[in-house]
Automatic annotation (TrEMBL):
One of its GO terms (molecular function) is metal ion binding. The lineage of its organism: Bacteria, Pseudomonadati, Pseudomonadota, Betaproteobacteria, Burkholderiales. NCBIfam families: HAD-SF-IB, HAD-SF-IB-hyp1. Residues 1-21 are annotated as: Disordered. It holds the Pfam family HAD. Keywords: Hydrolase, Magnesium, Metal-binding. This is HAD superfamily hydrolase (TIGR01490 family). PANTHER family: PHOSPHATASE RV3661-RELATED, PHOSPHOSERINE PHOSPHATASE. SUPFAM superfamilies: HAD-like. It comes from Pseudorhodoferax soli.
Amino acid sequence: MSTAGPPQGARHRSAQRAGSPPRLALFDLDNTLLTGDSEVLWLDYLRARGLLDAATAARNAEMDHRYHAGEATPAEFCGFYAALFAGRTPQQWQPLRDDYFATVLAPRLPAAAHALVQQHRAAGDRLVLTTASSRILAEPSALALDFPHLIATELETAADGRYTGRTAGTLNMREGKLARLRDWLAARGEDVDAALASATFYSDSINDLPLLLAVGHPCAVDPDARLLAHAQQGHWPVLRLQRDTP
């Protein structure tokens, strides 16, 4: 890991205005705190258990490639993974989801990721996990990392409680990730621009560039090639958290 802790600009500062909310420490999940993508790995998990056909598994690999290239639209990416939940309730999915987290995701949350989140917690910052992944898959990681706030892509449910296979509301991806955060802050009666100006955001992906450019303290974590170029041009901190994990 090239940097042991958060960048200097992200540390808690005594100059914070009295009475203002704690500074935001925003974290992407997939390929940032988590080694791998929780949606992509979920389909691999289902495929290994004979619950997914070969054609869908192939589409999973294609979607993963297009996401990392910045080519898949939010509707394509989120819609593809939402469709896999159709026909069951959250409660019916939970046993599989919980086993998936325990056996696949938990080992992919490296100690360095836990430590980084803890440093911001100890500094008194307000922790928000913000991810394009669906809430049902992101929640266990949020709990394991002790995040009090989670903003994720929401899945639509029918009147009988079953997932319809569609998403609901604004997708928490690209410009939608910034829009969802702005709405979240506004709903809490906060000065949105001031909160963003003092916020730190950690991400690996060019897909998160809208939010990275909106915060006062962007930080690239194990970035893809395009994000690394932006980070170098903007003199952003670059962290390496994933080196010792699967």
